[in-house]
Amino acid sequence: MTDVLEFDTYVIARHQGFSLNVPYDVYDNQGNKLLEVKHGMIGEVYSLLDSSGKTFGIISRKMIALTPSYDLQDANKTDIGKVVEEINIAGGLLNNTKNFALQDAAGNKIAQVKLTGPLAILTEMLKGEAPSAGNDITTPDGSKVIGKLATQMGNLTYLNQRPAFVLQVTDNSISKLALLEFAIAVDHLYSSAQYMSNNRPAAGGFGGNRPPGSGSGFTFKL
């Protein structure tokens, strides 16, 4: 069986249209499906399932919090971290910049990323030439790059034009499972916030009835 955590590059795709059952799929850069994310029966709990259907990790929305956040767990329901959208009034008003922090199980901030748009956008909008860039996931002081989050481009036919983005891990000092769950939660938090700001329903969970916006302009070539 493939070790999901042996890769450095992951393509994370959302289903087009509203879906509670399989909001996201995770692939390697050759198109092999590694994981799918399924919504639980109760509350905002999402399970990452491997190819055998076994739970690989869990993401759950923290319903009572000062700012939007998700708790991250491994297959044994052991806490491995938390994703928090940090308050950024100035950036949000000026250019839609949102700051997201990854905390460890003890609540210590271990990584961060800044986004100016949702990650999962229609791949068909990225056909042709575009500059390659990404959003760095860095240590809290910004001195070290741990990975990149970026919209992907190229002829990835296995996605069937689904909204997708790429996580590239460049440093192994943080659990890849935590980074994968971080990437999925960050995309959802930004996307759902944009739905709400545009007076559109956030659909109560990952995904939505269509990808919100396409304005980040970041691309990443595989």
Kindly describe this structure:
Helices cover 13% and strands 35% of the residues. With 222 residues, it is mainly beta. Strand 3 and strand 4 form a beta hairpin. The C terminus is likely disordered.
Helix content: 10-25%
Order of helices and strands: EEEEEEEHEEEEEHE
Chain-averaged pLDDT: 75
How would you classify the helix and strand content by structural class? mainly beta
Estimate the strand proportion.
25-35%
Largest β sheet strand count, sense and barrel closure: 13 strands, mixed
Shape: globular
User: How many individual β-strands?
Assistant: 13
Number of helices: 2
Oligomeric composition of the shown chains: single chain
Regions with little confidence, pLDDT below 50 for 5+ residues: 122-133, 199-222
End-to-end distance, in Å? Answer: 24 Å
Based on CA atoms alone, the radius of gyration comes out at: 16 Å
